[in-house]
């Protein structure tokens, strides 16, 4: 295990073998009365002599009943960049799989694996060296249920929220704004008021005072909490409790940060689209010998992404000039 200092005086970067290795350190510090927050685990990337990005690979050795092989192979191969190295069937009816997969693809998968196999699967993993970066991997397809305001959870508020997904807390629990109290059934974060109380009136109606039936909450372990984390979430560890929260607690500030991030991403997509359109335009007119001169000017007035392109094509001698006055990419 390696501990490194960062630019912040109260933040440290801890590198270990895996989630279990890091969770042992976290649990030991928690029992010694430390209070701290943990971000989502990330793999350690490297560069080779040619400047290519390399990432760690794992060999996942799986023993699973035959009826669950389809679920395991679909999630391993399609969404997590896994490749089958070996596959055979045992005399006991179990299927043996050896899948080479990026370490990033195994973060958060163990709990899904147990769910997909109804607890009948066995999975072990071995380090298999470094290989070229495999691209983006979607490891989580569901959002979070975030608390709307600080207070105490009520049965009425949880009853209205439990249809939205899976809850992690029960009634009578102290919560605060930005705290995560459940997993949303959809691929988006939703903000719910789990502290909502039922209004008391003098009106009585048949069926209005029936007992509320709550689904028992799911209690996450330390390892399961680390697997659940998204990039914009933190695990809050105290001697008495383990809580999940958003990095930015305030809802309005969180929406502004997300909007700013999406705007930057859209600018990059727009720049690439402009390049593709201009070169397609040039190719079309370069194949035509009767079109007049064409001059196309495209400008994106952004202070951080200045971009002005001038493209001129002359016929019939087929001469052209491409002048990127200020371009972030060529």
Keywords:
7 helices; seven-stranded mixed beta sheet; alpha+beta; globular; single chain; disordered C terminus; 32% strand
The mean pLDDT is: 78
Main sheet summary: 7 strands, mixed
- Global structural class: alpha+beta
Order of helices and strands: EEHEEEHEEHHEEEHEEEEHEEHEEE
Write down how many β-strands occur, each being a DSSP E stretch of 2 or more residues: 19
Helix content: 25-40%
Which runs of at least 5 residues are low in confidence (pLDDT < 50)? 287-330
Count of helix runs: 7
Q: Note the gap between the termini.
A: 42 Å
Radius of gyration: 27 Å
Strand composition percent: 25-35%
- Assembly type: single chain
Silhouette: globular
SSE diagram, text form:
Elements: E1 2-5, E2 12-15, H1 19-31, E3 36-38, E4 46-47, E5 53-65, H2 69-79, E6 83-89, E7 94-102, H3 103-106, H4 109-116, E8 122-132, E9 144-147, E10 151-152, H5 155-161, E11 165-167, E12 174-175, E13 179-184, E14 190-192, H6 222-228, E15 233-237, E16 242-246, H7 251-286, E17 294-300, E18 307-314, E19 319-326
Parallel strand pairs: 9-14
Antiparallel strand pairs: 1-2, 3-15, 4-5, 5-7, 5-8, 6-7, 9-13, 10-12, 11-13, 13-16, 15-16, 17-18, 18-19
